[in-house]
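Before going further, it is useful to explain how the protein records used in this thesis are read. An example of such a record is reproduced below.

***
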Amino acid sequence: MSVDACAALVARGDPDRFAAVMAAPVAVRGRLLVLYAFNLEVARAPWVTAEPLIAEMRLQWWRDAVAEAGAGQPARAHEVAGPLAGLIAEAGLPVEVLDQLVAARRWDVYREGFADVAALETYLESTGAGLMWLAGRALGAEAGAEAALRGLGWAAGLASFLRAVPELEARGRVPLPDAGEEAVAVLAQAGLARIASGRQGIRAAQGGARWATLAAWQGEPLLRLALREPGRVAQGRLQQSELGKRWGLLRARLRGTV
């Protein structure tokens, strides 16, 4: 399973996750890079065209590729789909979680906002939470660690989503059901609660699965900032200093988890 193309894609398109992978032991990097390259390809599919039908077709291509790999069919000739099929077979990744991750991205195709907070939470469950669980499974996590991994992934996904709010609005989307500062603070508090719970439960993760959590290293500081100063979200100022980011990742690396 060649991961060179996947590594290059993640390095260019998702530098924060790439940094998290590079902070993990060499032995676990390959599987994470394949998974994160898949996530990147899926996440950007709705944005490479202004035609909703074409975007839907791109997402369906990935759903079909995942289904075929799960059924043991030959991998598609694609720099990410090929390694992903190998990872699905080697790690026993749950195909339904991969499919949900792709299907959730249909929201990004259209301009309609989420119907309510519950719809946003479901989106985060399928994307951020699902990706973290997949990363844990790729590194050997057992069922007992699923809730903890999903909680950390949900919170990290929320932090990234809040950081992207101004760009999403600039692209004509309505990212938040309620963009008021009080509502933003409530969301941030919910994310922090999931981090606290996830940290307690991550002890159930087996072997190297904890390394999957490094990708969530910015979740807590960003959500604490959003809770303290929710106006930063609308202003596009929900971000850490470079020093803060580096220290946070180093601390997570030394702990072996966030």
Notes: The first helix runs from residue 4 to 13. The mean pLDDT is 95. The CA atoms of residues 139 and 177 lie 35 Å apart. Residues 111-258 form one domain.
